[in-house]
Task: inverse folding
């Protein structure tokens, strides 16, 4: 599958391909090393700088907070020296001493207040930017899922994608405040503070920062461990999402077979796996933070010991020592937060890789650069030696050299045993997949040369599995044309023979159907799907076993009501029920992807082949059912 530029942010060099996605959840080869952590983090940073003004304000507030925080040790040291001067020097009057202490207190209070204000500003700015890029990524991720081809969704579980669009996206969002801005704050505190302390007393300054190299080394090793743990945890969370999605979707089957204990046990096992990795992650972070904090206190002890000796020798004042000790105390919280910083960086690189792996994918089915809008005139559909194999090295061919033509006003019937390739033909027409060989044309224009939107507006497919949304019947029928008036909706419902059923409902067309239309029967859902298509104009109509759950009499009425629609388009009917096909202009019998027989109903009966044998069996079944009734 081809690779292309990401929707947002720009993909770094060497970005992930479909066969090199950085996780096993996609069901393809895993190769996390393709996208380096630095490239992922840089890509996230580029997204952040989309909001330059907000970033500038947040970074400025962070630097200002660090500056005012660095002022606190200096003011506190002056206050200590002034207080000691009052105690040791009787020449200073009490009024002067009070004024000096009062001034120092005001300076401390002012620096603390300004530090608090700018800290609030940098926290607010970081959260705001984080939510903005989360908004952008959420829209881009959802848009990408809408554009990716059926071949992608065939092998990727919905629960896995939901996990990426929520948990992974949250990991990227938090990087702004807990990662990037916290790093800016720490760099300013250590950089500016280090300069001030080293210029004041090189020995004590060196001792004050003696823990920094050790912390840097410990952070790097912890990040590598946390990165791997985050990847494993996100995979387990994806598994949990898959289990829950399947369980809730199939809740009626679970209840019908009394399988609740089994489902609970399955979820417990997956949850325990996730919990074990989460525990390991917490232990790694806690151990790393503890070691870094120990190193910090060792450095503080050294400063206190050496500085105390210098005070005793008169080499420095108590206020100067207070400056060093206060600065180290100020660093205590950032040092403790280094674990969170490392955790944020590890999580962002892992979550970003998983998220961008989806955003970087190019659909297998997409418009060619020079694709034109399809404007069917005659509406003639033609398959020319079409063969198809699903994108799997071990998958057997589904279609072999299938050829047929359907003109406007004509109907082609397709019949065959399960797995013979009937639904594949229905999927190839609107380009849900592309044929492996041969070509498909509409009015002699190959469908790969036209835009997908115009193609799917011209070719309407009514599928056997009729999906309904959790909304009203009216909205489900008008899904293809949300601005349709009531007359159009009711006319389509009449064509699909569902208007009588709707009339019995208390709220009529405004009745809310359950999730996936669970409150309707299979036949009712299929009729709603037919009504949804009957509202729209089409050059080609394809019914993929879309009346399988509808009784024969209702099917006959629907077919009669659809006559005015099918008179102006080419119609393809795929069905196991031969009664639905006997009036077709041509019928093809498929088996193992090959056309074994073709002709109209009478000629196929006269041939005495597979079609005739199947018709004889179904005719006997119909006679038996009537006798029982």
Result:
């Amino acid at each position: 599958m081809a690779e292309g530029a990401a929707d947002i942010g720009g993909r770094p060099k060497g970005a992930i391909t479909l066969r090199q996605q950085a996780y096993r959840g996609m069901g393809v080869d895993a190769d996390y090393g393709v996208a380096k952590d630095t490239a992922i983090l840089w890509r996230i940073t580029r997204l952040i700088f989309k909001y330059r003004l907000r970033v500038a304000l947040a970074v400025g507030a962070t630097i200002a907070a660090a500056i005012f925080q660095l002022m606190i040790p200096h003011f506190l040291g002056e206050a200590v020296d002034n207080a000691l001067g009052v105690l040791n020097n009787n020449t200073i009057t009490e009024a002067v001493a009070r004024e000096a202490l009062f001034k120092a207190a005001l300076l401390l209070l002012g620096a603390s207040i300004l530090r608090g204000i700018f800290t609030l500003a940098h926290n607010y700015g970081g959260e705001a930017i984080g939510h903005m890029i989360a908004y952008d990524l959420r829209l881009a991720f959802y848009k990408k899922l809408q554009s990716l081809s059926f071949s992608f969704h065939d092998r990727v579980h919905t629960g896995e994608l939901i996990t990426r669009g929520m948990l992974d996206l949250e990991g990227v969002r938090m990087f702004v405040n807990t990662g990037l801005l916290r790093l800016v704050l720490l760099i300013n505190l250590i950089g500016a503070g280090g300069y001030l302390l080293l210029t004041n007393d090189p020995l004590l300054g060196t001792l004050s920062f003696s823990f920094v190299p050790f912390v840097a080394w410990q952070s790097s090793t912890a990040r590598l461990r946390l990165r791997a743990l985050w990847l494993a945890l996100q995979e387990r969370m994806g598994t949990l999402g898959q289990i829950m999605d399947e369980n809730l979707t199939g809740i009626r089957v679970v209840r019908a077979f009394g399988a609740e204990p089994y489902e609970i046990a399955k979820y417990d096992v997956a949850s325990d796996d996730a919990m074990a990795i989460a525990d390991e992650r917490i232990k790694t972070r806690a151990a790393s933070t503890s070691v870094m904090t120990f190193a910090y206190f060792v450095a503080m002890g050294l400063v206190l010991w050496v500085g105390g000796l210098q005070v005793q020798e008169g080499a420095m004042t108590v206020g100067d020592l207070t400056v060093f000790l206060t600065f180290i105390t100020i660093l205590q919280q950032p040092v403790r937060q280094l674990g969170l910083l490392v955790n944020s960086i590890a999580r962002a690189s892992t979550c970003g890789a998983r998220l961008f792996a989806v955003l970087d994918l190019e659909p297998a089915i997409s418009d060619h650069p020079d694709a034109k809008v399809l404007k069917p005139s005659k509406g003639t559909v033609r398959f020319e030696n079409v063969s198809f194999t699903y994108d799997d090295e071990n998958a057997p061919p589904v279609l072999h050299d299938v050829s047929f033509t359907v003109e406007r006003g004509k109907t082609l019937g397709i019949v065959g045993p399960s797995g013979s390739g009937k639904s594949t033909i229905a999927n190839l027409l609107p380009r849900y997949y592309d044929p492996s060989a041969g070509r498909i044309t509409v009015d002699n224009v190959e469908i790969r040369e036209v835009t997908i939107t115009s193609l799917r507006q011209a070719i309407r497919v009514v599928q056997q599995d009729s999906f309904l949304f959790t909304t009203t019947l009216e909205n489900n029928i008008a899904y293809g044309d949300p601005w349709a008036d009531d007359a159009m909706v009711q006319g389509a419902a009449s064509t699909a023979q569902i208007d009588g059923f709707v009339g019995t409902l208390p709220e009529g067309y405004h009745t809310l159907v359950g999730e996936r239309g669970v409150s309707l029967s299979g036949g009712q859902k299929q009729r709603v799907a037919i009504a949804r298509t009957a509202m729209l104009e089409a050059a080609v109509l394809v019914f993929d076993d879309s009346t399988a759950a509808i009784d024969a009499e209702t099917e006959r009425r629907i077919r009669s009501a659809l006559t005015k629609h099918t008179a102006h388009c080419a119609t393809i009917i795929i069905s196991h029920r031969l009664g639905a096909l006997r009036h077709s202009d041509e019928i093809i019998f498929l088996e193992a992807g090959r056309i074994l027989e073709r002709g109209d109903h009478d000629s196929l009966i006269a041939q005495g082949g597979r079609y005739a044998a199947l018709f004889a069996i179904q005719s006997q079944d119909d006679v038996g059912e009537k006798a029982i009734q």
